[in-house]
Write a structure and sequence with these properties.
- The chain is mainly alpha-helical.
- The protein has one domain (about 15-150): Orthogonal Bundle (Arc Repressor Mutant, subunit A), CATH 1.10.10.
- The protein has helices spanning about 10-40, 40-55, 60-65, 70-85, 105-125, 130-150; strands spanning about 60, 85-90, 95-105.
- The chain has a three-stranded antiparallel sheet with strand order 1-3-2.
- The chain is globular, with a radius of gyration of 19 Å.
- About 10% of the residues are buried.
Length: about 150
């Protein structure tokens, strides 16, 4: 069977494998750069980014849900961010067990610097794509993500 006559499933499998390889390479580069430039980790960056998008903060359970990780994974990161003065805990009125977390002013400023560097690094890593190509790929992956989200709903 020649390359042109292989079934769609083989082409899609190759696409999946190339996506994984690219994702792993990009993630590895970002992890290395965050560690070298900011002494930070990618999960810590992700927590800061989620909190930056939620100006009023998030409950710990909401933060875990946004990041699609367990509460236990987030708790240790939040502890260190509180110690560093980048995040503050706020009691939730009416629920003594719940805590909301949000960025402090120091956290917002530090994250803004990290986010600008992160955007620059991603842009550098994806320079093979012109803006129109990047937008077309974004659209295609948005379609895919919407379809996958629909399929995962009960």
């Amino acid at each position: 069977m020649t390359h042109d006559t292989q079934p769609d499933s083989k082409s899609r499998l190759r696409l999946w494998l190339r996506l994984l390889k690219a994702q792993r390479s990009i993630e590895s580069a970002l992890r290395d750069r965050l560690r070298a430039e900011f002494g930070s980790t990618l999960p810590r960056f992700d927590v800061l980014a989620a909190l930056d998008r939620s100006k009023d903060g998030l409950r710990m359970s909401e933060l875990s849900s946004v990041l699609k990780v367990s509460n236990g994974n987030v708790t240790g990161i939040i502890e260190r961010l509180v110690e560093d003065g980048q995040v503050e805990r706020i009691p939730v009125p009416g629920d003594r067990r719940a805590m909301q977390v949000r960025l402090t002013e120091k956290g917002r400023k530090n994250f803004a610097i990290m986010a600008a560097a992160h955007e620059s690094w991603v842009s550098e890593l994806l320079t093979p794509f012109e803006r129109t190509e990047a937008e077309a790929l974004c659209s295609a992956f948005e379609t895919l993500n919407n379809r996958l989200d629909q399929e995962s709903k009960p």
